[in-house]
Amino acid sequence: MTLSTAFMDTGHDHANCMESALDRASALCGERGVRLTPLRRRVLELVWVGHKPLGAYEILDTLKAERRGAAPPTVYRALDFLLQHGLVHRIESLNSFVGCPDPLKPHGGQFLICRSCGLTAELNDHRIDQAIRNSANQAGFAVGRPMIEIEGLCPYCRDAGEGSP
Amino acid sequence: MTLSTAFMDTGHDHANCMESALDRASALCGERGVRLTPLRRRVLELVWVGHKPLGAYEILDTLKAERRGAAPPTVYRALDFLLQHGLVHRIESLNSFVGCPDPLKPHGGQFLICRSCGLTAELNDHRIDQAIRNSANQAGFAVGRPMIEIEGLCPYCRDAGEGSP
DNA sequence: CTAAAAATGTTACAATATAACATTATAGAC
DNA sequence: GTCTATAATGTTATATTGTAACATTTTTAG
Ligand SMILES: [Zn+2]
Ligand SMILES: [Zn+2]
Ligand SMILES: [Zn+2]
Ligand SMILES: [Zn+2]
Question: For domain B107-165, which CATH number applies: 3.40.50.300, 2.60.120.20, 3.40.30.10, 3.30.1490.190?
């Protein structure tokens, strides 16, 4: 995902976007010899539905309508699996989860989160990462996993003048 | 706070460090016409004690031993006040709170958090901020409040070989 | 002193997350 | 195919983090 397409344009074919994300997930799990079960696949699908972070209990509410014994462990275990394999990220500032568009290479995650509509885009800008590493190194700190969550306004909400009225 | 002193050295006079933080807080509240009550001052003192993030219920446990009717709202209200005035920051990835060494100028917060000992340092590196703004601008995103929390190893734990054995 | 405002006390509950153990489904050995 | 080990899910209970709502006390200002 390049910078200029961090936020999908309005003509974005979302059905195809979601399907290809699920296909990539399926392939990745196949290569790693782990199982993308129907439950895990469904949870992944749900976090991909809106390109916006979803809370565990929002996911649970949907699952409850679809499965007999859905309970918190149901969704948290699926999310743990998806997190372990880089298929979703956890957004710490929202206690929520969002699909990762590029699960193959391990990375922390740089997120642009719209405060108006919730739309979230993932960056992976090496310049940001480098700036952080430079600064941390000067402090004598060994960087593990940088977490970057930037609240603000997405292009659509910004242009619509949202977020302050 | 300059980069090279992000983590205090071992000879760090912590009693003095904490006292001066409280004095700065007192002065700031005076200038703003708001009250740094004994409760608020005590909570601020507690988050400063260890230079490491403290959970609300950890603070509450201490307060309970000192005051009659300490309950969750007691500590959350004090923290809300301190957050509003920039005297503490919330560390989202830990659901915890840490004192701000520079409450005068508003800022998001760039944190280096040791996964071994919990020691946390606050950076405010304009280059990181600039890298983020550049990248977000290219995505058409209007940056509000960037949040940066970097997990890793502080200089002492790194040198002691902690964090992986 | 008195009234308004601010701060704190108190009770109850909401939202998020995990522990522990039982059951079911899957994969591989035979 | 059957059996067995493992992985996944079901189920119940509970831990952790955070708020709502209203009562009481303290502080400020007239
Ligand atoms: Zn990602
Ligand atoms: Zn938006
Ligand atoms: Zn700060
Ligand atoms: Zn450390």
Answer: 3.30.1490.190
